[in-house]
Design brief:
14 helices; mainly alpha; elongated; 2 domains
C-alpha cells in the first residue's frame, strides 16, 4: 500500500512485529533492557498510529492490521502471568518471605497473643485446675496422658493416616479462615481464636507437666506444631491487617484502603495453606508413629530443624526483586520517557500543572 501514512510508519510496525514474534517464542523476559525500551516505545507509537488511522478514516485493512498489532503488544505487556511456573516460584521464594518481613510487627503481635494464651492455660491449670476445668474438661487432658502411658497415642494404622492428615488439614485451614475473617469485626474473633488455641495448648502442657511428662508432650506436639502454629500466627496476622486498615485507613477511604491492603492480607493467608499442608502431613504420618520407632529426642531434633528451615525461608529473597517487578518498573519509566520525547510541550505542561 503506497499511502504516505503507511510508508512513513511501516518500518516501526515491522520492528514491533519482530519483537512480538521473539516474545511469543522466548517469553517477555528474554528481551534485553534496550529491547524492552524499544518495545515499550514502539507500542505507544503504534497505539497513536491506530488512533490517527481511525481519525483519518484510512482503509479497513490498515486499521485491522494496527488493531491486531496493538492487541498482541498489549497482551504481552499487561497479561496476567500468575499461572506460570516462574511467577509461582517468585511468589513462593521471593514475594511471600518479603511480605512476612514487611509485616513482622503485626506477626509478632499475633505470636504474643498465642503465647499469652498458653501462659494463662499453663499457670491456670497448675494453680487453679478447678477454674480451668470449667472451660476445658479435665478428663480430656487425662485421657491423653493415659494414651501416652499405654502407648496408644500412636495407634493409627497406616491405611488411616491419609484420612487423619486430611482431617487435620481441614481443621487447621478452618481455624485460619476464622482468624482471617475475624479481622473484619475489628479482630475480636481473631484474638479469641489465637488466645483459645494458646490456652488449650497451655492446659494440655500443664496436665502433662503435673504427671512428669512435659518433655514428652513437646516431643509429640512440636514436630508438626512449629509449622502449624506459625501458619496460625500468619493467618491471624492477615486478619489483624484488615482490622488495622479499617481502624486506620490513613489518607484513603476505608473501602479504598481495604481494596488496597486487603490484597496483602489475602496473599499473607494464602501462603499459610502450604504450611498447613506440610504440618498436616507431618502430624498424620510422623506424629502418629510410636516413640519406640522414633524416640523423643529425634522428634525434638526434627522440630528444631523445621524451625531453622522456617527462619531460613523467611529470609529468602532479601536482596532480590521479582523479575516482573523490574519489568513493570522499566515500562513505567519508559512511558515517561516516551511522553517527554513524543508529546508536545503544551501537553507536557498541561500534565505537570494537573
Amino acid at each position: 500500500m503506497n499511502l504516505p501514512f503507511v510508508i512513513n510508519r511501516k518500518e516501526r510496525w515491522q520492528r514491533l512485529n519482530e519483537l512480538l514474534k521473539k516474545i511469543a517464542k522466548n517469553k517477555l523476559s528474554s528481551l534485553s533492557k534496550a529491547e524492552l525500551i524499544e518495545f515499550s516505545v514502539l507500542y505507544r507509537q503504534v497505539t497513536s498510529d491506530l488512533a490517527l488511522a481511525k481519525t483519518q478514516k484510512l482503509p479497513r485493512e490498515v486499521i485491522s492490521f494496527l488493531n491486531d498489532l496493538t492487541a498482541r503488544a498489549y497482551n504481552q505487556l499487561y497479561r496476567s502471568q500468575k499461572t506460570r511456573w516462574q511467577q509461582i516460584k517468585e511468589l513462593i521464594i521471593i514475594e511471600y518471605p518479603q511480605l512476612i518481613r514487611q509485616n513482622w510487627k503485626i506477626i509478632l503481635f499475633s505470636l504474643g497473643i498465642i503465647l499469652l494464651g498458653w501462659l494463662f492455660g499453663f499457670i491456670g491449670y497448675n494453680n487453679g485446675p478447678d477454674v480451668v476445668s470449667a472451660i476445658i474438661p479435665e478428663q480430656f487432658g487425662q485421657r491423653l496422658v493415659e494414651h501416652y502411658e499405654t502407648n496408644t497415642w500412636f495407634n493409627e494404622p497406616l491405611a488411616a493416616r491419609p484420612y487423619v492428615s486430611s482431617t487435620i488439614l481441614f481443621n487447621n485451614i478452618q481455624v485460619a479462615i476464622n482468624a482471617f475473617a475475624g479481622g473484619m469485626i475489628l479482630g475480636t474473633f481473631t484474638v479469641y481464636a489465637l488466645f483459645f488455641n494458646g490456652f488449650l495448648l497451655g492446659v494440655l502442657s500443664g496436665v502433662f507437666h503435673k504427671q512428669g511428662y512435659l518433655l514428652s508432650f513437646w516431643a509429640m506436639i512440636l514436630p508438626h506444631g512449629v509449622i502449624e502454629l506459625t501458619a496460625i500466627v500468619l493467618a491471624a496476622a492477615s486478619g489483624f491487617l484488615l482490622t488495622y486498615t479499617i481502624l486506620f485507613p490513613g489518607q484513603y477511604s476505608r473501602s479504598d484502603a481495604l481494596r488496597l491492603y486487603g490484597r496483602t492480607a489475602v496473599k499473607l493467608i494464602s501462603g499459610t495453606i502450604f504450611l498447613f499442608l506440610v504440618a498436616g502431613l507431618i502430624e498424620g504420618y510422623l506424629s502418629t508413629i510410636s516413640t519406640e520407632v522414633i524416640p523423643e529426642l529425634y522428634r525434638l531434633v526434627f522440630a528444631a530443624f523445621t524451625g531453622i528451615l522456617l527462619l531460613w525461608y523467611f529470609n529468602l529473597g532479601r536482596n532480590k526483586t521479582p523479575r516482573r517487578g523490574i519489568i513493570n518498573k522499566l515500562f513505567k519509566n519508559y512511558q515517561r520517557i516516551w511522553r517527554m520525547k513524543y508529546q508536545s510541550e503544551p501537553e507536557l505542561n498541561k500534565e505537570r500543572n494537573y
